[in-house]
Amino acid sequence: METPAKKTAVATPNIALIKYWGRRNIEINLPFNSSLSMTLDYSLSTETTVTFSKMITSHRITLDGKTIALDRGDEKLQKMKVVIDEMLRIGGYSEDFKADIYSRNSFPGGVGIASSASGGAALVCAANESLDLDLSKKDLSIMARKISGSACRSVLGGIVKWKRGSRKDGSDSYSVMVFGPDYWEELTDLIAVVSEDKKDIPSSEGHDITSSTSPLFKLRPSLAEDSIGKAIHSIRAKDFDSLGEIVMKESNNMHAAMMDSWPPIMYLNDSSRHIMKMIADLNEAEGRIVAAYTFDAGPNPHILTLSKHASKVERELRDSRSIKRILKSGVGIGPKILEIT
Ligand code: DP6
Description:
Elements: E1 7-11, E2 14-18, E3 23-25, E4 30-31, E5 35-39, E6 46-53, E7 60-63, E8 66-69, H1 75-90, E9 98-105, H2 115-130, H3 137-147, E10 159-162, E11 175-179, E12 187-193, H4 203-213, H5 220-236, H6 240-259, H7 270-286, E13 291-294, E14 302-306, H8 307-318, E15 325-329, E16 336-338
Helix pairs in contact: 1-2, 1-3, 2-3, 5-6
Bound molecules: ligand DP6.
Ligand DP6 is lined by residues 16, 19-21, 29, 35, 114, 116, 148-150, 203-204, 207, 296-297.
């Protein structure tokens, strides 16, 4: 058995058009519904280097300069440990090998962009290379899902569907590319940062509070499946008008179910609502949908638009004093392995 090599992978976040919220299995992140997302390009990314060594006594990660043993970390770090151990087992390596993970984000921390999606995807891709496992995209997606649900969509580029699956072991709950990154290159995501505060309720808790307490949540699984079908249809036809409407309604529905939870979960703030109104007014003035907002578990809107409308939309956003900065991304191609490490 060869000694694992030092390898580096770069992965990017994704923005869910139809959201994952609520888990039927918490341990391995199995969702109640399928979801659909756009993988972002390399303007926002996580770069992760993995080395395996017998000289350290536990798996550890250095993130933003801080090193922490995975078995001493929070839920997400514990899940990373489980996945790394599983990958070592698949490769037939001795459990004396411990992962030394070094990860950094190109985007500033605290801007409300989930680094768990890009981080989870980058880690499984780097470990796959290092251990020379040659896992398929499907298996990488399953590994990433076990770290963080949304990470399973970041192992692929373009427009990605995470199939909910129905098996208990999660072997049919993974992502597939529905449209390649070149299919609709004009799609643009403007991320308007209105708050850099840490959220009160981490999404890992929020998922379970909503699914176990919200009466409205019961509507989501069938609604999400239906919306995915419609969104795919709109993307195939490159019909932004209908896609934008589906995306905004879906975000509203998820946040309504969050609000309907007990205790209520409110990720949106006054600035978020102000921007929702601004986008509605802009679309009204244009007589068609040129921009569509969508919010994950936080107050910062992702504004989807087409490249031809991007500067106009950006101008409108810049007029709003509540926006601290705007990040811009197109459709990404998915993770890559850096050859020079
Ligand atoms: C609102 O993937 O962060 O962004 O599985 O607990 O890691 P865990 O949750 P996470 O949830 C993301 C939820 C969302 C919607 C989405 O990305 O689909």
